[in-house]
Amino acid sequence: MKTHTKPKPEPKPICKAKTRHGTPCRMKPGASGYCFAHDPERDAARTSARRRGGLRRAGLLARAVLSEDEAGPVELRTPDEVRGLLAATIRHAQTGRLDCRIAATVGSLAGVLLRAVEQGELETRLAAIEAALAQGQAQRGAA
Ligand SMILES: [Zn+2]
Predict the structure, then answer these.
(1) Tens of pLDDT, residues 57-77
(2) Of 14, 71, 72, 77, which cross-links 88 as Cys (Cβ 3.0–4.6 Å)?
């Protein structure tokens, strides 16, 4: 009668790296001996690709947001123009065309600019009212 011997399990290759707890990573390694997450070469390639993608998106975003066709005039002299830039920035950030960091910077600057532009408009209107009042007083004084 044949004796049943348990087939010896082949030791599975595992990743050469250790987890952050210091225990061996048990993931299946690639040709480098590391798993996908721990492969130093892939890590560098991933980081560089991400950075290139980020810069390209940032450039696209800046052009898209600031170009006249997409976001209206670049001159931001009226509250409506600033609001248009804000709306375009939000739209592009929502669709992923604009890098969120750039969108946040544009949003923050545009918020400051909007207040300044609105304040400038108020001052202009106040000056007009003051001039009209002064003119009325002068007319009453002359009468
Ligand atoms: Zn690993």
Answers:
(1) 556 556 655 554 454 446 788
(2) 71
Residue 69, in any domain of the structure: yes
Report the separation in Å between the CA atom of 106 and the middle of ligand 1, taken as the mean of its atom positions: 40
What does the DSSP assignment read for 110-126?
A: HHHHHHHHHHHHHHHHH
User: Is residue 118 in some structural domain?
Assistant: yes
Identify the domain containing residue 63 by its residue range. 56-142
In the reported structure, the alpha carbon of residue 10 is separated from the centroid of ligand 1 by a whole-number distance in angstroms of 19
Asked, for residue 88, whether it belongs to a domain, the answer is yes
Q: For residues 100 and 105, give the distance between their C-alpha atoms in angstroms, rounded to a whole number.
A: 9
User: What count of other Cβ atoms lies within 10 Å of the Cβ of residue 33?
Assistant: 13
Q: How far does residue 69's CA lie from ligand 1's centre (Å)?
A: 48
Distance 30 CA to ligand 1 centre (A): 9
**Number of domains making up the chain:** 1
From residue 9, alpha-carbon distances to 6, 28, 34, 140 in Å are 9, 16, 22, 108
pTM listed for this prediction: 0.44
